[in-house]
């Protein structure tokens, strides 16, 4: 893992060169299609002396790396090269991290499975026929398959939490504005967040601490000071936890119920499945409208930009929402839903510290799984949008509300389905209280690891194997 590897390098047990060579070789030879590019120069770089010196990291291909083209999984970006590193990439490099390449993602972040990537889909590390989750598919797969211990992703409506849950790694979406968006190709600017993937909560907390903080180059980045997340993990906690009940697959329900019991969580009745669905529908209205304006820049060079089907559909929807469908007031309704969601969540989070719920209704599905819209498209906004919702809309309905309200949220692996697929638990907190979210995740991680090392559990595991 990242901090342990950095310590081994500092002690002279591993060399930066050997670590880089191994990561580059594994990124190149992996069957997962997690990487869009692997940087050959990673093996002969002089790395600054910092706390992550020599630790290989991967970066979602919608986040700029100096002198590279961030394709965002799209042919539409062309051959333009970034003049500088994104803010978060620069912070990791200053700490001595070694950026070994860019990872595949759904085109411009639009998708939940990785399948809209124009460079082909990424595969799930435990089952090549399954989707790793998206849109930050390659970053999650690269961390889960131990090619790198840390990766950057972006989460607009769930794109870090979902692949983290499906691949069995920790994935953190910070509060909106906590991490600068400078150097992130925009999808839905009002909810886009840069965050991290790691194999432990400690690594994730440490990496988040490095990339968080104000940036003069991003007017929406916050001035709030950044606490030492890592040392806050060990503070004894009285954090009050409430769990939101939703209908999900039995395997998912039992893992999340186990987490909820272990933390003695209260039940939160103020946030109904209907509320979550309205938030997801509102998110898709706002995301399509903002995508339409953000992606207009790619029309400059192409009369018909070579977007894939999903992006084309969403940009066209955004155009209609701001144009001919404007009369139906869908955009205004979505703005209202966002305001109400913020107020409702502020209220709920005034009496508890964190909320807990599943990340998605199922574990990693087979690639090319059939549409799951119909079952989930209830609620008035979703009904009016029915034909315009993405095929995998159901995978957004447990994550979009936190994005809409700009709240910090993460997924921590807590169990497995009967078929052995990872199941993540989602923890959502108050704005700028990443510490409570991380602390809760750390408690869950300790409970999980304790259970794994108990004799009864060891027998179960060897039987599973
Ligand atoms: N699945 C959601 C969407 O397609 C969220 C994606 C994201 O967070 N980038 O918009």
TrEMBL record:
InterPro entries: Amidase (IPR000120), Amidase_CS (IPR020556), Amidase_dom (IPR023631), AS_sf (IPR036928)
Molecular functions (GO terms): glutaminyl-tRNA synthase (glutamine-hydrolyzing) activity
Gene3D superfamilies, per database record: Amidase signature (AS) domain
Pfam families given in the database record: Amidase
Residues annotated as domain Amidase: 33-438
Similarity comment: Belongs to the amidase family.
PANTHER family associated with the record: GLUTAMYL-TRNA(GLN) AMIDOTRANSFERASE SUBUNIT A, MITOCHONDRIAL, TRANSAMIDASE
Name of the molecule in the record: Amidase domain-containing protein
Organism name: Pelagomonas calceolata
């Amino acid at each position: 893992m990242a901090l342990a590897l950095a310590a081994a390098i500092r002690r002279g047990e591993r060399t930066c060169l050997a670590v880089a060579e191994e990561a580059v070789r594994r990124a190149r030879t992996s069957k997962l299609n997690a990487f869009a590019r692997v940087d050959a120069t990673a093996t002969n770089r002089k790395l600054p002396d910092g706390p992550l010196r020599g630790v290989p990291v991967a970066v979602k291909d919608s986040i700029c790396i100096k002198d590279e083209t961030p394709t965002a999984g799209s042919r539409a970006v062309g051959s333009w090269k970034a003049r500088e590193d994104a803010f978060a990439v620069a912070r990791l490099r200053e700490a001595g991290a070694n950026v070994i390449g860019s990872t595949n993602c759904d085109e411009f972040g639009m998708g939940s499975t990785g399948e809209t990537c124009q460079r082909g889909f990424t595969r799930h590390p435990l089952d090549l026929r399954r989707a790793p989750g998206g849109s930050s598919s390659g970053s999650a797969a690269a961390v889960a398959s131990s090619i790198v211990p840390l990766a950057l992703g972006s989460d607009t409506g769930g794109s870090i939490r979902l692949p983290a849950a499906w691949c069995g790694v920790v994935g953190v979406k910070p509060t909106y504005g906590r991490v600068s968006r400078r150097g992130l190709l925009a999808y839905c600017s009002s909810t886009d967040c840069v965050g991290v993937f790691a194999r432990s909560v400690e690594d994730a907390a440490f990496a988040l601490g490095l990339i968080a903080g104000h940036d003069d180059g991003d007017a929406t980045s916050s001035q709030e000071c950044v606490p030492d997340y890592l040392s806050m993990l060990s503070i004894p906690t009285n954090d009050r936890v409430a769990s939101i009940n939703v209908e999900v697959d039995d395997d998912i329900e039992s893992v999340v119920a186990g987490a909820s019991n272990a933390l003695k969580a209260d039940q939160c009745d103020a946030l109904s499945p209907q509320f979550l669905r309205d938030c997801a529908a509102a998110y898709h209205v706002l995301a399509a409208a903002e995508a339409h304006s953000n992606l207009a820049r790619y029309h400059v060079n192409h009369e018909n930009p070579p977007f894939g089907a999903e992006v084309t559909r969403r940009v066209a929807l955004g155009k209609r929402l701001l144009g001919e469908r404007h009369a139906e007031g869908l955009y205004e309704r979505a703005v209202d839903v966002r305001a109400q969601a913020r107020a409702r969540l502020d209220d709920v989070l005034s009496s508890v510290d964190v909320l807990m719920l599943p990340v998605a209704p199922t574990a990693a599905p087979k690639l090319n799984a059939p549409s799951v819209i119909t079952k989930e498209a209830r609620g008035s906004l979703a009904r009016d949008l029915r034909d315009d919702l993405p095929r995998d809309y159901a995978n957004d309905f447990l994550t979009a509300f936190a994005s809409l309200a700009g709240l910090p949220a993460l997924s921590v692996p807590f169990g497995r389905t009967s078929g052995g697929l990872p199941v993540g638990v989602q923890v959502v907190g108050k704005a700028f209280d990443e510490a409570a979210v991380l602390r809760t995740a750390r408690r869950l991680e300790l409970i999980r690891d304790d259970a794994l090392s108990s004799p009864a559990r060891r027998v179960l595991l060897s039987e599973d194997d």
